């Protein structure tokens, strides 16, 4: 019904805009054929009986939806799934809904299996382990690490973006979508078809206790294009076992207010380039690190930090990382306040 309305509709799923998950999506080709994943989202919410959660909303519908959405976005809707839950663990509080859920996903044709564990009565943890035939990628809170088949770390990427930056990115993208500046939005209503079909199958599995199919009639026939696909990011072409790289690299997501080394772009810039503001921020930071008084120039085609910043302007470790990035055709994530090398 909503898809038939002649207005653009967006869903607030901010994890789709977080640099760590955009980075993970772009690392997947380096892992070869994906064979398994394991995800955990756990938070400790003390007062479940004195908030809107007391009305029966469980961890799967609340926090879990966002992580399940990321998994479906990375791997597509599963063919079948099995789900179990435990409800109302805190007996001294008056509430209902599942506090713990464990869900297993299966894809027949891809020979892929995955699991997610959800809890709102445990210590804080947010992680995804993805294993492929050529290596493993691990997102552990705000850090993403790439391992080869021998367990050796090849890459380490810190996501230092703030929640405010992520929300601003999401809102600006939706503004362009509403104004017709772009026909794609990373969290459009249409792009959530597979997630909704998966959530419906999970609810059926909770009630039946059986394996449940994800109904194909609820899933769009073709993947919905996203902004990430609109701005592709190259992945390493060298096999992980031959890269012999162990780097740890991050850029801060914000500049202290008292710093005068990096003047902020003018309001006119944001009006003319709403999709490039975070990328410009990264370039400005690189210019400041290189000792430039003026911010680096912006190219409207969203080239990477490595390609925009001249190697001779970077010193020490940054020059070495720049060479590594060029040699392996690695680019930083556009518009996110994070780079990797």
Strand content: 15-25%
Task: State the CATH class of the largest domain.
Answer: Alpha Beta
Number of strands: 10
Gross morphology is globular
Largest sheet data: 10 strands, mixed
Strand order of the largest sheet: 9-2-3-4-1-5-6-7-8-10
What's the gyration radius in Å?
21 Å
Q: Give me the CATH architecture of the largest domain, please.
A: 2-Layer Sandwich
CATH topology heading of the largest domain: Dihydrodipicolinate Reductase, domain 2
Q: Which residues sit in consecutive blocks of at least 5 with pLDDT less than 50?
A: 220-235, 241-315, 320-341
Summary keywords:
Dihydrodipicolinate Reductase, domain 2, alpha+beta, 341 residues, disordered C terminus
Describe the fold and architecture:
One of its GO terms (molecular function) is oxidoreductase activity. InterPro entries: GFO_IDH_MocA-like_dom. Residues 293-321 are annotated as: Disordered. A hairpin with a 2-residue loop joins strand 6 and strand 7 (143-147). This protein is globular. The termini are far apart. The chain is built from nine helices and ten strands. The protein has two domains: 2-230, Dihydrodipicolinate Reductase, domain 2; 251-327, no CATH class. Residues 220-235, 241-315 and 320-341 have low confidence and may be disordered. Helices cover 28% and strands 21% of the residues. A ten-stranded mixed β-sheet has the order 9-2-3-4-1-5-6-7-8-10. It is an alpha+beta fold and 341 residues long.
């Amino acid at each position: 019904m909503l898809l038939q309305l002649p207005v653009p509709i967006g869903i607030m799923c901010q994890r789709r805009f977080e640099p760590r998950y955009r980075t993970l999506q772009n690392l997947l080709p380096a892992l070869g054929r994906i064979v398994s994943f394991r995800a955990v989202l756990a938070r400790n919410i003390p007062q479940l009986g004195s908030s809107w959660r007391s009305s029966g909303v469980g961890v799967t519908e609340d926090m879990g939806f966002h992580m399940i959405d990321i998994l479906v976005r990375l791997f597509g809707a599963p063919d079948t799934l099995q789900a179990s839950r435990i409800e109302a663990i805190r007996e001294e509080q008056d509430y209902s809904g599942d506090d713990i859920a464990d869900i297993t996903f299966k894809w027949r044709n891809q020979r892929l299996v995955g699991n997610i564990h959800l809890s709102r009565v445990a210590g804080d943890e947010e992680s995804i382990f993805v294993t492929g035939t050529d290596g493993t990628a691990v997102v552990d809170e705000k850090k993403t690490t790439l391992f080869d088949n021998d367990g050796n770390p090849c890459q380490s990427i810190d996501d230092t973006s703030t929640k405010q930056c992520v929300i601003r990115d999401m809102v600006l993208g939706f503004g362009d979508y509403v104004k017709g500046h772009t026909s794609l939005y990373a969290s459009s209503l249409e792009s959530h078809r597979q997630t909704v079909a998966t959530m419906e199958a999970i609810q059926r599995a909770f009630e039946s206790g059986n394996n449940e199919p994800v109904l194909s009639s609820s899933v769009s026939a073709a993947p919905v294009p996203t902004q990430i696909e609109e701005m592709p990011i190259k992945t390493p072409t060298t096999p992980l076992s031959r890269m012999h790289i162990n780097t740890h690299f991050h850029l801060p997501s914000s500049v202290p207010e008292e710093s005068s080394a990096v003047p902020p772009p003018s309001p006119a810039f944001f009006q003319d380039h709403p999709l490039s503001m975070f990328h410009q921020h990264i370039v400005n930071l690189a210019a400041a690190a290189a000792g430039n008084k003026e911010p680096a120039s912006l190219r409207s085609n969203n080239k990477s930090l490595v390609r925009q910043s001249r190697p001779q302007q970077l010193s020490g470790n940054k020059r070495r990382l720049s060479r590594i990035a060029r040699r392996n055709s690695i680019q930083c994530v556009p518009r996110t306040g994070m780079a990797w090398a």
